[in-house]
Amino acid sequence: MGIAAVVALACMAWYLNSQNGSKEPTASGAGRKPAQIYGGMRLGQPLVSRHTERQEAVVAAFRHAWKAYRAHAWGKDELKPVSKTSSEWFNLGLTLVDALDTMWLMGTREEFDEARRWVNENMVVAQDKDVNLFETTIRVLGGLLATYHLTNDTLFLRRATELGDRLLPCFHTSSLIPFSDVNLYSGKAHAPEWGPDSSVSEVSTIQIEFRDLAMLTGNKKYQEVVDRTMDKLQEQPKQDNLVPLFINAETGRLRPGTLTMGARADTYYEYLLKQWLQCGKKEAKFKKWFLLAMSGVEKRLVAHSKPSNLTFVGEVKENGEFYPKMDHLVCYLPGLLALGVHNGLPQRYMALATNLMHTCYLMYQKMPTGLSPEIAHFNMKATSKEDIYVNALDRHNLLRPETVESLFYMYRLTKEEKYREWGWNIFQAFEKYTRLKEGGYTSINNVMDPAKVEYRDKMESFFLGETLKYFFLLFSDDDSVINLDYWVINTEAHPLPIWSHYY
Q1: Interatomic CA distance for residues 165 and 498, integer angstroms
Q2: What does DSSP say about strands 197-199 and 302-304: parallel, antiparallel, or unpaired?
Q3: What is the mean pLDDT of residues 287-303?
Q4: How is 116-146 classified by DSSP, letter by letter?
Q5: pTM confidence score
Q6: Active site residues
């Protein structure tokens, strides 16, 4: 057993002993320090900090979206704002649960209290419904855990524990790699309908939520299953410590393929760093794995466009060919790198973060609507006149948060005002092209034509759970609101505490 593993087990043993063997969440929260001030923020009470003018604009946008959700999709997963109807995915009230901590931070108490009543009276976890482990973990489990931490309301811990238990059958595999889907009533877990494999990001972006649940309840089973999965992933052979897109839950083997920081692999890298931060930097293996992976990114994926020498992160196909394409999803990386440097990682990553942040902003600023496409392509030929071009199938915008997320980190950690100005420009573009007068916001099909953006009739839960939350935090003048030295934020923008400060 390695030193890191011994340290991890020792930390868990200390915690469990401190709880006298308790296996159930208690009224005060197992392991909670008695102090109510955490990282400068008072827990258990609504925030009292004064909002800036721009924060007030974001709160108004949230209320506009929430009013439509409440009117046309209450308790459903997502709002279809154009048709004024709803859609279901997991039947877990995704939008409502995803937005709980956003409402608490914004101080929209009336809306929060009504949502809490729904969680208490109407939320059904044990239902005959197949759900995706990854999406349910980051959106619902993460949302419930974060809301518990912020409010001290044990309702949310009870719901989180119930959901965590219902998701555990995904891990009942001989390979230690979880199945992607599970029926919340029967407990039957299985691979996705479209094929035998799980996305690598799906099995590697559930760790900090289950580890947090283990610490809160004193039941190590939640941490053990996700730790085994992560260790199994690290045993697999990789190219320059980069992972492909898919892994098979039956065999536990990675399937060779494209190397990318985008869809199906992106958050694997994010959670390497965030697991290290979550445990108070006591498990050095996560830092090691992250640094090795970032060396691979620098070597294989970072490139520069023509004629303006923009930094971007491309992809490498299975045959070794470099493909100059970058998903909007990759724009989480500048903020992640800046967070790493803030916590002592090599300073050169800050230069990469700064350059990538500029490129991600240009993916908005260069478009006629001021909104980014889902995917951007970059020219690398010396004769190129434009650095960025967009294919017809990639012109849509889904109200994604990644660029705003990174702007929040970059501003919070550097205090360079340009990042807030860039964010304000993006917010205004959302207001102009995605806001519906009757209520709600919608994703659009075409960022290239302001006259024909073409509404997609879908307001993703992450617009309230992530995008508007990051705008709110970006425009805050109070760094104690989610102090980055005390909280680690999951990939769905739900803040979870750093163990060394909290327990």
Answers
A1: 23
A2: unpaired
A3: 98
A4: HHHHHHT---S-S-EEEHHHIIIIIIHHHHH
A5: 0.93
A6: 135, 266, 374, 402
